[in-house]
Amino acid sequence: MPCVADYIIKNIVVMKYSPQDRKKCIKQRVLSSFMHVARGKYHYQSDKVDFYVGTGDTVYIPCGASYEYTILSDVTECIQTEFSLEQTICGEKNIVVIDQKPFVLKKQEGRLDLVFSELNRCQNDGFSTLASLYNLLAIFENACRRDKAVRDGRYKIEPAIEFIEQNFKNKIYIADIAKMCGISESHMRRLFRRYLGVSPIGYKNLILIKAACNMLRYGDLNVSETAEALNFGDIYTFSQFFKKETGISPKNYIDTHRERGVSET
Fold first, then answer.
1. How far apart are CA 127 and CA 133, in angstroms?
2. Cα distance between residue 100 and residue 128, in whole Å
3. DSSP for residue 263
4. Which of 16, 103, 165, 215 is the most exposed place for a label (fewest CB within 10 A)?
5. How far is the C-alpha of 225 from the C-alpha of 236, rounded, in Å?
6. How far apart are the C-alpha atoms of 231 and 229, rounded to whole Å?
7. Phi, psi for 98 (deg, rounded to 5)
């Protein structure tokens, strides 16, 4: 017979309160928690996270997490529920968390306000409380899944990003970096545009033009020497590239920027 997975929510506590401690350090939280900010602003920090939450935002904190929060507002009010979530598979019980680190869901146009309002109103009604908690778990699980999909998508092109950053002076072929990442050329282009806003060659050119600007502004090389240092075949090709990317010639860039000494960003 196939194994059936059952989820059980236990040790439920629901509370609405105004925190008294402006700053608090939590070590190895015993229960998981959803904390909804009805009014106010918090700053959460740990070795894994650093984020701010304000009115309308909700924080998920898994059991076992260690973190510190600081209240940044004069008036603070929150609705919080603590609980433990168990999964039983073929008779074996395990504690389940949505994510290993605290996770914030920003204000969702009243959706979470309504869920927590209902949770607070029905905190003495066992079935209504369970329904609200399962609803919250579903919302956050979907949010974590979407976030992971975004992170995983960028992860696929990290080898190509690193390669371009280390070899921007050289000719780069899309087929080579796509093979390096184990994806097609078209998928490579789509991911670059999605996560970096430019094509792979556009990203290479951004790094190349920044290097050229820094060399012309802070170095002592002339235009021809800079072109050679950046592996351009001749000064004409470099000048055309530079003017296309910046709107001015390399010589004019030297004349107008070397005397300023403003850091390139």
1. 10
2. 27
3. P
4. 165
5. 12
6. 6
7. -70, -40
Helix axis angle for 174-181 and 200-218, nearest 10°, is 110
Distance CA(12)–CA(112), nearest Å, equals 18
What is the identity of the amino acid at 49? Answer: V
Is 48 within 8 Å of 101 (Cβ atoms)? yes
What letter represents residue 154's amino acid? R
| Cα–Cα separations (whole angstroms), residue 133 to 31, 53, 62 | 14, 20, 14
Element (H, E) at 118: helix 111-121
- The tokens of 86 are what? 């168990």
Tell me the mean pLDDT per 10 residues along the chain, length 265.
62 92 92 95 91 93 94 94 84 83 81 86 79 89 78 83 94 94 93 90 94 89 93 94 92 79 40
Backbone torsions φ then ψ of 216, nearest 5 degrees: -70, -35
pTM, full prediction:
0.57
Residues pairing with 9 in the sheet: 85
Dist. CA 62–CA 33, nearest whole Å: 6
* Tokens 């369970």, located at residue: 130
Between CA 129 and CA 119 the distance in angstroms is 6
- Per the CB < 8 A criterion, the answer to whether 61 and 30 are in contact is no
Q: Are 250 and 242 in contact (CB under 8 A)?
A: yes
